[in-house]
User: What shape does this take?
Amino acid sequence: MAKLLMGKEVSARIKAELKAEVEELKKQGINPGLAVIIVGEDPASQVYVRNKELACEACGIYSEKYALPEETTQEELLKLIDTLNKKESISGILVQLPVPKHIDEKTIINAIDPKKDVDAFHPVNVGKIMVGNYDFVPCTPAGVMELIKESGIDVCGKECVIVGRSNIVGKPQAMLLLHQNGTVTICHSKTKNLKEKTKNADILVAAVGIPNFITGDMIKEGAVVIDVGINRLENKKLCGDVEFESAEKVAGAITPVPGGVGPMTIAMLMKNTVKAAVVNQSK
Ligand code: GUN
Assistant: This one.
């Protein structure tokens, strides 16, 4: 039976540590603050944003939420970002993705001051991750690294296979694993013989967004399996990209969905917000 990597518990630990750190920072006059912007009514995004607000509260981090209507123009959104870029009490800015179709995602990401870009989506921060000299680690890949640490495996020299090549997860995940000397393979929808690749993985990260895509027969005996997927099935139940039932019989360690990677992403966002407050203080 595989060891369960409980992100919910690990994230609670991290948030408790952050709370103590924030208290100390406040004594030095450093007050972390996060602005979260959501445009439109996407129900999943609304839940994520609510959870981010709650996490701020739990860590003693000041937060502002901007819930803008679906018909908000790109100009209006850019104006708000500009205001927040200049606002002293705000150390981190997050625009919940996806944004409505009439707004260009790249333009929005590029408008956020890189020093306040706690998602680490801005090209400046993406470049810094590439060269291994960064303040902000993208939240989901950073959370995955914490869970890999929790499994007890040493990444150095291991076969790491990532399924999915998104800018938010797959690509930065590859960099973080590489920085720890993993041998990294990125697979995607055009990959041939996927099973051959995944079966070779000591560490398998699934981030494709397809329910139950990775099955037990695609996993190496004893592998660490990290499931980044959060998919809502027709019966409203949440499920990951990994078919948990068959996978847990083969894996050495595995994350549940929910309660695995999800809470870790938010804990890492809190960490970046605190970091931003410290970095911006000394700029
Ligand atoms: N949408 C899905 N994941 C994320 C994330 O990590 N950050 C933002 N801003 N939007 C998201």
Q: What stands out?
A: Residues 79 and 256 are 40 Å apart (CA to CA). The mean pLDDT is 97. The chain has two domains: 29-113, 139-262. The domain at 139-262 is CATH 3.40.50.720 (Rossmann fold).
